[in-house]
């Protein structure tokens, strides 16, 4: 598997004549997948967080500089500093726009939330698995060995489904944010403006058939003087 990919692994196959060994192997595989998923999100968060902090710092510096330059010009310390203040404000706004366009801040926040959710779910799995092992060591008080194995498989399957759902939800959030970029908003505003312009023109009361010309109303001739 290439570095940076978040893909699944083949399901371990083998002889189920020793179900305890096969279940332990399957548990290790599921646990490794969860740890790999959390590590992927944490590593993906690192560069996004650095980029977001740089852009946020640039935006704050631009805002402070843009507010300070006109004051320096008023005091006479730096003549013509207002132009540089406007430039600093423009650069700060551009930094915020880049952060919003590339989704750095929102991206690393999603990565942190997903990694924490996977780790929290993994802790629940570890305690559930330990509980099943303790139950088997003390002796199955309810059900048969096949039912105990089925319970273990159900625990692992539900955990895998939960992790897959977490990844799917994070991907869906990214897709929604990507689709709600500046271009769709501009197109939507243009469409709304066009609809408002069309709505401002009142429609004709009686539509005329094609190929006909409007007739002017006849005027009443003037009456003869008596």
Give me the oligomer status. Answer: single chain
Low-confidence stretches: 182-206
Dominant shape: elongated
Rg, rounded, reads: 34 Å
Number of helices: 5
- Please report which band the strand proportion falls in: under 5%, 5-15%, 15-25%, 25-35%, 35-45% or over 45%: under 5%
Element order: H for helix, E for strand: HHHHH
How much helix is in the residues? over 70%
* Class inferred from helices and paired strands: mainly alpha
Taking the sheet with the most strands, its summary is: none
Mean pLDDT: 77
**Total number of beta strands:** 0
First-residue to last-residue Cα separation: 109 Å
Account of the 3D structure:
There is one protein chain. 74% of the residues lie in helices and 0% in strands. It is mostly helical and 226 residues long. Helix 3 runs antiparallel to helix 4. The radius of gyration is 34 Å and the shape is elongated. Among the domains are: 55 residues; 92 residues, no CATH class.
Fill in the keyword field for this structure.
226 residues, mainly alpha, elongated
Short description:
The protein is built from 5 helices and no strands. It is an all-alpha fold and 226 residues long.
């Amino acid at each position: 598997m290439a570095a940076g990919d978040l893909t699944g692994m083949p399901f371990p196959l083998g002889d189920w004549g020793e179900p305890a060994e096969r279940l332990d192997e399957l548990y290790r595989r599921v646990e490794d997948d969860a740890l790999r998923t959390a590590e992927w999100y944490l590593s993906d968060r690192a560069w996004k967080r650095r980029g977001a902090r740089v852009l946020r710092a640039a935006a704050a510096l631009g805002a402070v500089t843009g507010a300070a330059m006109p004051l320096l010009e008023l005091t006479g310390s730096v003549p013509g500093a207002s132009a540089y203040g406007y430039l600093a404000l423009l650069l700060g706004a551009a930094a915020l726009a880049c952060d919003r366009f590339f989704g750095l801040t929102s991206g690393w926040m999603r990565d942190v939330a997903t990694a924490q959710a996977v780790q929290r779910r993994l802790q629940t799995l570890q305690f559930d698995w330990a509980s099943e092992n303790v139950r088997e060591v003390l002796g199955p008080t309810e059900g048969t060995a096949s039912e105990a194995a089925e319970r273990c498989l159900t625990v692992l399957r539900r955990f895998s489904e939960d992790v897959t759902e977490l990844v799917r939800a994070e991907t869906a959030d990214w897709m929604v944010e990507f689709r709600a970029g500046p271009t769709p908003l501009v197109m939507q505003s243009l469409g709304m403006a066009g609809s408002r312009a069309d709505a401002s023109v009142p429609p004709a009361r009686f539509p005329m058939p094609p190929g006909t010309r409007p007739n002017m109303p006849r005027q009443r001739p003037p009456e003869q003087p008596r």
